[in-house]
Amino acid sequence: MAAKFSKEYDVIIIGGGATGAGTARDCALRGLKVLLVERKDFATGATGRNHGLLHSGARYAVTDGESAAECIAENMILRRVARHCVEETEGLFITLPEDDLSYQSLFIESCRRAGIKAEAIDPREALRLEPSVNPTLIGAVKVPDGAVDPFRLVSANVLDARLHGAEVLNYHQVESLLREQDRIVGVELRNLTTGESMQVRSRVVVNAAGIWGAKIAELAGVKLNMFPAKGSLLVFGHRINNVVINRCRKPADADILVPGDTISLIGTTSLRIPFEEVDKNVVTPEEVDVLLREGAKLAPTLATTRILRAYSGVRPLVAADNDPSGRSISRGIVCLDHAERDGLEGFVTITGGKLMTYRLMAEWVTDLVCRKLGVSVGCTTASTPLPGSKDVPSRAKSRKEFISLGVGEKGAVGRHGDKADEIGFANSRDAALVCECEQVSVAELRYAIQSLNATKLVDLRRRTRLGMGTCQGHICVMRAAGVLAENNVNSTDVLDEAASFIQERWRGVKPVAWGDALVEAQFTQWFYDGVCGLSELDRQKTNQSEEK
Amino acid sequence: MKYDVVIAGGGLAGLMSGIALAREGRSVAIISFGDSALHFSSGSLEMWNDAEGALNSVAANHPYAIVGTQHLDRYSRITKDIFASAGEQLKGEYGCNHLRISPVGVLKPAWLTFDDYFVFDPKMTDGGGVVVVGIDGYLDFYPDFIADGLRRKGVECDVASVSLPELERLRESATEMRSVGISRLLKGDAVERLAHQMAPLVHGAQMVIMPAVFGLGDVDGRQRIERVVGCPVRVAPTASISVAGVRAQKKLVEEFRGLGGTYILGDKVVSCRIEDGRVVGVRSHNHGDVEFVAKDFILAMGSFFSRGLVATPEEIYEPTFGAAVVCAEKREAWCAERILEAQPFQRYGVRVDGNLRVEIDGSVVENLYAVGSIVAGADAVKEGCGAGVVVATALMAAEQILGKELDVKEMN
Questions:
Q1: B335 close contact with A: CB closer than 8 A
Q2: Quick one: which of A52, A311, A406, A544 has the most CB atoms within 10 Å?
Q3: Would an 8 Å CB–CB cutoff place A296 in contact with chain B?
Q4: Domain for residue B110, yes or no?
Q5: Å between B395 CA and nearest CA of chain A
Q6: Burial category of B189 from C-beta neighbours within 10 Å (exposed 0-12, middle 13-18, buried 19 and up)
Q7: Which of A156, A202, A197 is CA-nearest to residue A34?
Q8: What is the rounded CA–CA span in Å between residue A273 and residue A530?
Q9: So what's the ipTM on this one?
Q10: Domains of chain A, earliest start first
Q11: Are residues B227 and B183 in the same domain?
């Protein structure tokens, strides 16, 4: 029996990726009563499984001018409103001897048409700008690419939504949509931690579930023609390049190398997969080989750089409505009012698009929701900075002040911007480093637990970069488990989570398990199983419950 | 440079072979890069996970089968004797595992354990409380997990925490607040103050458990705390570097040198010269053209972790001698889906004959023996046989070279 949930919202948003989080924020800023639900943790779908590239739009300039123009506009907006999530690296589009140099002029012309500043530079200057770039390049164009941290971006959107009254439930799955005649009036949710169900009502339900949006639409009895397209990437053990490197040719596999915090990323492949496989996230040996081979053409040093892990995401590509075959697929934004399209009131879908355009997607769908609710407040997200980017952090007003901070404080300021002011470093215990690779302190973890809806070890990774560095959690996962245990989480539960954390990291390491990665894997198993006995704990618990 | 035996690799395996040979008057050189699995020791050596610890049957290609399980009891006694001579007492014996505690509170079977480490005694359940004492801001020791583990066994348990101003300095660098850094500061007056801070917190306890951070400062730090708090103080393992392991490695190296052995640290064997099916000499990274010549050679370079084996996307190989390796050909088969289940790669290693001699280019090399975790066939993690295989193969190789069985000295 589902427990009745008396509360009624203006809008329930399904999906805690960038689009859903951005929509929750936009709706909350416009004064709506908002509930955001996510079946896992925030940014666990395609949002957290891409390059983290702050596209200039140049990549799409030749093939899709409209997307390119949207990208550059959003690029400039995010530099302002999400300053603490963005790194202004610049980008290069290089032409290699095997590429057609004449493509360059078409590329530059297309960029200009889309409003993207694209400037051809001398290959020697490109090498000075980015010493890791393939020295055999015969052409280079400079564009305003950058890097964006999708986890931080989503976290800031969720936080701001909550600061404006939105309620947020992660680890809650939508079991069904509540329907009265031709109207969706709410959702039935299951709390995946406790197993309890509840019904929540709202005037509009927004489907922002990315590729899983097709399933949500099914629950509403409407058909969305979506095509899962898997893209795989490799993470390298250190930051190889400081400037984004792209190939100046028609978009293809493994032609973007992006720096992000302490690492670099090469991607992606592109492979249609059946719907049954969208949750699998398997990176095949063939994909790894392609990524390495093509990646080394952008920056030859990749061939000898340690690979940390591999991962894949699934793009939610949508077929144009008048083409049921799916041949004309758009990477553009799709915003559907199912009242108009299917005669179903109270239900809208926002999909397609890309991480870069999440804010614009949120704006479009919030406009639609407001029209339905008769609300006339305009969108302000293009000019209102996100929490973290509102101000200069008070403990680092100047460069001199920043330099004098402790390592844990520096990490916190870098990741949380002005919100780092709320992270107290009262005593030496607070400043103790949990993650040495990424400089995450006890205080920052506590802040994530208390203020950023992090309840599990894996959530702490997405909120703080815990375990994302060179050691992939070997040193820090137990430390973090210790901190979580102190925050009143049952110790055997925490150890289960430590095991899940290590397993989650292993899933990414396994496709590239040779060289140093295999060395680390041997150590990981030897320490966590051999020395610590984590699998033993699992067995002891099973035996105990069998005895009961 | 001429020796009776040259050993490539100076961890537990190389040292056990080296000490056993040096005790018999052989001139031995160990060339060691400096890594040792002992540096990450749990405080215990393991022979076999089975609760009894006695081995009756193992797979035919397991190193224990090559060694012969009938020798394990003898090797066990020799191991204790070698450690004791080096100044490190081990408790436990072959054939009756005891339970040690892991950093996260799991009780695991062990064969031999360093004397100052906690081992579980069923009598503890009615002997009063145990207090697990952590150090403030030191994140590699988990009092809550250890206390919960003991409570699951029915032991009454509490946690407490102490702080030391000396340790504040460590925090200035990101990587200093580790067991080794703390251990170096635990000397003189600091130990006294720590003990007096602990005394009221642990009053009336039957035992105190502290992180294993003793041994690199004052040698008697733990005993001095015992005297002040008035009950036994035992240590439990920490994550990251194992102080007791570092301490034991140091003592074994000193023991080897004391017996006249040459321990070359920070160097690595990089190539060998083979004539008529025998290794005649090896070269090292630092010594360039100067060859190490010997009658016999031992390969004790460890597994992947110490680079004794190397994996590329295409193959797994043994880089120093080019010894034949037992492994799956395709990389898809090297690893299992779940990190905590049995991993095929753990059993990979060099192929050895019945006398532990390796194979190069299709034929057995008469005077090159493989010992330790580089020998194929064992899963140290799942079988709990890491240290057991290391010492058994190390001592067997020494006996092969000596042409006789090693003596067992009975200890008092």
A1: yes
A2: A52
A3: no
A4: no
A5: 23
A6: exposed
A7: A202
A8: 38
A9: 0.95
A10: 3-46+151-225+321-373 (3.50.50.60), 86-147+229-310 (3.30.9.10), 394-547 (no CATH)
A11: yes
